[in-house]
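Narrative summary of target 7.
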Amino acid sequence: MIEKGTHLSIQGITVESAYQSINQAMKSKELSVDLRERIVSRHRSGEGYRTISAALKVPMSTVTSIIWKWKKFGTTRTLPRVGRPARLSDRGRRALVGEVTRNPMVILTELQRCSMKRGEPSRRTTISAALHKSGLF
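Modeled conformation, tokenized:
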């Protein structure tokens, strides 16, 4: 195995630049709730961002964003992501899956009528996509 500090160049790519590109490509994981709570408690006790960052070995920008989120929303928990709301509720999707499991030969128009009876009108394409996502169509 080649050490990180070794200078080796293959077609203009050094080991150091390869490590940098690998590190940039990797996504970071979310911090645990416990660690986020510790960051907020240290902030409330009067410690500075830099001190918290050094003590918990977390980047200062992460400490800043966690404290900002806590001040704005009053929580450090992961909030729901933004995006378009689903047309079908989980309950409606489960009902469709149950209907198809009971009667595999049912047609999409019939499923559409069933969803309208439940008070959740949906297009055939929406129903088909939901069933496909559930692994049925």
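The chain has seven helices and two strands.
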